[in-house]
Design a protein that fits this description.
Order of helices and strands: EEEEHEEEEEEHHEEHEEHEEEH
Largest sheet: 9 strands, mixed
Strand content: 35-45%
Structural class: alpha+beta
Helix content: 10-25%
């Protein structure tokens, strides 16, 4: 078994650990102020893809596999990397206390990484603005962001898939036309136009090359949140360098490659069906059969940056997630029963006052 890599980068001047700074896009030591470039940290035109078939057979080259020390959260299922010096922590995904162990996770090495562009203060400001826009949130939730509780910078795992597809279909093209009819309504004869559709059988072929179909490779965050963190500027992906992870954590993927591809196929199928309907044309379309051949499937394991804050409110976990590139915020929120009750009471008072005023007007 290969040795586990501990991603630590000591400063030459003082020995403290470097941290990747999003604003400077380089490693910075908070103690000495020293900085260091990330070698090979510039975007390139295209990252090398890996063979999906070879990966399923276990035939990837040894350099494409790495081992990391992780802890699995029993509450949300997250597999998060920890360094050897850590012994206890709080799960950044659900705020559950966890105790680290020496568990080793062997997985496909990330091919690319999208570095953080926002620092922690900027992420906190984004969450504060988001919380301020929420109605009926408890005061304590707003205070959460303002008091500066620490956010966790997490690199979340994703799969990207490329595929060349060719599809054959049969179906029907519908053309709308109208007939005039006389009907009885309210005891009177009325003339109406009724839309009808004339159907004609069709068949054809469509082809599409899919590039970087993005699939979340984690089960620790709700997809409803992560999906709404899009879009991601994948054109700015950098070749994976562990220096980008300095000062941050990375989650190991928990959605295996084959399961990720099944989700990617569902995404591709929706696009192919749209292509088929466009190819059929007309005013309406029916698809009877659709057979798709998928070739030349390749993939990448990439890490995307998310700022995250998890907290407990009345025994339940709530989470904020922030796109580490754009500042887009998604999250869970508790409702303030007190605020809702007061608002409902005020509404009833206002409604009663308006009704009373209208009654006075009617009586005059």
């Amino acid at each position: 078994m290969n040795a586990v890599t501990d991603h630590r980068f000591p400063c030459d001047a003082c020995g403290s650990d470097y941290r990747f700074d999003p604003a400077a896009a380089r490693l910075i030591c908070a103690h000495s102020g020293n900085t260091e470039e990330v070698e090979g940290g510039h975007p390139i035109s295209a990252l090398q893809e890996l063979s999906f078939r070879a990966a399923l057979k276990g035939d990837l080259a040894a350099e494409e596999i790495e081992e990391t020390r992780t802890i699995g959260c029993k509450s949300c299922g997250a597999q998060v990397e920890f360094n050897a010096a850590e012994h206890a922590a709080e799960c950044p995904f659900c705020a559950t206390p966890v105790v680290t162990d020496t568990g080793i996770n062997r997985h496909i090495k990330p091919r690319g990484v999208l570095p953080f562009a926002l620092n922690e203060d900027e992420a906190r400001d984004a969450v504060g603005d988001w919380l301020g826009s929420l109605w009926f949130a408890p005061n304590g939730v707003s205070d959460y962001a303002r008091k500066g509780r620490r956010f966790s910078g997490i690199y979340v795992p994703y799969w990207t898939f490329d595929a060349d597809t060719k599809s054959q279909y049969t179906g029907e093209r519908g053309t709308h036309y109208y007939e005039t009819r006389t009907v009885m309504r309210d005891g009177k004869r009325k003339t109406v136009r009724v839309r009808k559709t004339r159907w004609r059988g069709v068949s054809g072929r469509v082809a599409r090359f899919f590039d970087d179909v993005l699939v979340l490779a984690s089960t620790s965050l709700p997809k409803s949140y992560t999906d709404r963190l899009s879009p991601w500027d994948l054109s700015d992906l950098r070749p994976y360098q562990p220096e980008f992870l300095a000062g941050f954590r990375a989650e190991a993927y928990t959605v295996e490659l084959d399961a990720g591809f099944e989700e990617a196929k569902a995404i591709m199928n929706r696009v192919i069906e749209r292509d088929v309907r466009f190819d059929i044309g007309g005013d309406a379309q029916r698809i009877t059969t659709l057979r798709t051949q998928v070739n030349a499937v390749t993939f990448k394991h990439v890490l995307l940056p998310v700022w995250m804050a998890a907290y407990k409110y009345r025994g339940k976990s709530y989470r904020f997630v922030v796109n580490g590139r754009t500042g887009l915020v998604q999250g869970e929120r508790p409702w303030s029963i007190w605020k809702i009750t007061v608002a409902a009471f005020l509404f009833l008072i206002c409604a009663g006052g308006i009704g009373f005023a209208l009654a006075l007007v009617d009586g005059i």
